[in-house]
Amino acid sequence: MIKVLLVDDEQIERDALQVILEKNFSNLVIKQAKNGRVAIEVAAEFQPDLVLMDIKMPGIGGFEAVEKISVNYPHIKFIMVTAYATFDYARFALKLGVIDYMVKPSKVTEIVEIISRALNRIGTEQKLLERDKYQQDTLQKAMSVFETDVVTQLLFDHVHEVHLNELVEMLDMKITKEKFVMSLLLPLGSEVYYSAIREKVREAGSGWIGAFYGRQLPIIVFRKQDQSYRSQATFLARELLKLVNLDGDAEWFIGIGNVCSSLDQIRQSYQESLLATRDSTIRVKYRFYNDLPTLVSGFDEQTSKQYEQQFFEEIRSGNWEEISTTVTSLINRSEQEGTNLLHTQQHLMELFWLVSQLLNEMGAELESPIYPFQSTDYRQLRAETSHLLEKLKQSYEERHARLEADTIEQIKQHIIEHAHQDISLDAIGRVVGLSPIYISKIFKEQLGVNYINFLTECRIEKAKKLMRDPEKSLKEITFEVGYHDPNYFSKVFKKMCQVSPTEYRKNIHA
């Protein structure tokens, strides 16, 4: 329904107009106002789509009323009504943005024609607004899904810097040079808090939230220049912890990695944030990686980080020979340097804890590995360590063996069939029963491309087919293949095909 307000100081004029409108138009809700002052009051409450405004009225005249109403309600359309059709009136009406002019008395046919034009214009604008609102709502939902995929790609796969810049444009968020990762360790079933966590991060400033991986939720936080790193991280951690009533048995805990300045280092910050959640029994329920106590004296920090980083990459690659070599190297070095045996065993436990965390993320269900007893010499330590590694390897291979031979084909087919939708790794994971991280890993291993590149290829191939239809506009094709912004679609298309969509279409129809 379209709401119309009739403003005239003559009751008979208002009533006559209302009769004409009701007789010729069925989709109107009509109200009246006897002068400019009343019109302003009624407009505030009624918020009409169209106002037929008399110019000459006692007190506040028509032009003044239009000015006052338009300040607060710029979407309202006005048609001026007057018995004095002068050039000055017309010029002033145009200046105010009035859409039409009606001289009284007018023939019924003229009134109907003028009102029809106005209603058609209003109807068209309302449809455009509804479509824009729908697209904005859809885009907002897509951005939330897209955001989790970007985090997954950054932390667990290789994303080219140029490609990332395009993704950032889509997310409409300013990316800063410095960034760090926070890992939330939450009880199983905490997915109900996901929306609230996302809202807290947005309120606090720039940050991207990943997907839940078991009990863990990663957040990439962009550094603010107007406050220190520790202040920013502490504030966000406390805000997130407010979402639950923490008691002595609360399982919420937040690990905070160090600040980094490149994409290569972001995964190290993520690894540090995981390590910072190692002991979740402390009272404050969050910890910076740099504040971890030195559990193992005899290992300098740089050496420890080197071993941890090697583990991080080798486990993700499933390279168990290299993992065994790394562990053996660590034990041999410790023995040669005369490191206390207990300290060496403790440090190995640190590394095995990291192994178990990563394997859990990849879908291998296992408990944290522990030594059954304290080793009495390095020979015994080697034997027990080899046994623990074998158990971890077995868990990894059992998980790998449970995958059906056609899993990748199933994933590929799902992406091809749903490429036009706001599909995500998380959604695919629910279809095939795998974690988003593991999907990203096996996709890259078996197909040689990451998930985003494959999805992009599917969309571009579909766009090429749709371009054969000359009746379809590029804007329609953009939405049909799954993009929400024609400009971004053009950028992606040109990057993939070396020509713009317009040039490609000209070539195929030449």
From TrEMBL:
Gene3D superfamilies linked: 3.40.50.2300, Homeodomain-like (1.10.10.60)
Segments forming domain Response regulatory: 3-119
SUPFAM superfamilies: CheY-like (SSF52172), Homeodomain-like (SSF46689)
Keywords of the record: DNA-binding, Phosphoprotein, Transcription, Transcription regulation
Sites of 4-aspartylphosphate modification: D54
Pfam families linked to this entry: GGDEF_2 (PF17853), HTH_18 (PF12833), Response_reg (PF00072)
CDD domains assigned: REC_YesN-like
Record-annotated HTH araC/xylS-type domain positions: 409-507
InterPro entries: CdaR_GGDEF, CheY-like_superfamily, Homeodomain-like_sf, HTH_AraC, HTH_AraC-typ_CS, Sig_transdc_resp-reg_receiver, Tscrpt_reg_AraC-type_HTH
Name under which the protein is recorded: Response regulator
